[in-house]
Amino acid sequence: MQSQLHVSHPLRLYILLVTSLENAVQRSHPDITPPGVVPATDGHRWISITDTENDVWMFDVTFLLSRYHCIYGQGCPGIDVEPDHTEAVGCCVHGAYFVDDDDMNETFEYIKRLTAEDWQYKAIADAKTTGKKAKNHGSIRKLKTGEMTTIVHQDACIFLNRADFAGGAGCALHSAALRHGERPIDWKPDVCWQVPIRMDVHTDDNEKDTVFIKSWDRSDWGGGGDDFHWWCIEEPEAYTASEPVYLNAKTELIGFVGEDIYAELVRQLDEIANQSVTPVALTSKAQS
Fold this sequence. Notes:
The chain is an alpha+beta fold. It has 10 helices and 10 strands. Helix 9 crosses helix 10.
């Protein structure tokens, strides 16, 4: 009897095909997981790089060598409590929380460059605007906690163009940046280009920092992470990139650590990735 294989999404077919060809890599190199495989939660390898200020950067090698990438518009069902079958909402359901006033004001400079051709809800935001400052713009709100965020309109960030928009679905700021030949990470709020890479800073008694660069796990959101019905870091569909994270997320990593640290990171990860690991079989001596 012939077995039948049912594939519900092209990404799953890709995972099955590539994994069958590359699973030997995982057996021969303990730090590399092949495409379609989520790295184990425990046992990650780390490397450290010390900068000119004697601050220490710690990098999660296991995650950075994985094939993770954002799959918005390529099967992502969103992070809301129920899946989004339009694949147009992604992780934009709660709006963007600005890190600080600088983050908000810098983003506002790019908001002012958006046109109606870029942004589906520009007219709605303009109608709510009460002043010339960022905090008074109709796309930005202040929560009771004092946090500043983008407005949520029709169950997602007001900058998220929907599937029925003539300019196409996706972040208005991201799309406009690409049309202008500029970097989306310069246009968007920090959290929007950083997630799901997390920078966690710990400062000691001597004011020296140890900075961890890792994946943004569900637990890093606190209790709110439990509400996500789906989180990409945990799902094999998101581990289908043609290159490892440290290469496919070059722009974002440089945004975190700068050119010099990134160059050293690439040197070390290239060396690790190219290491030849020979399996050793342990046998017991026969009893005479």
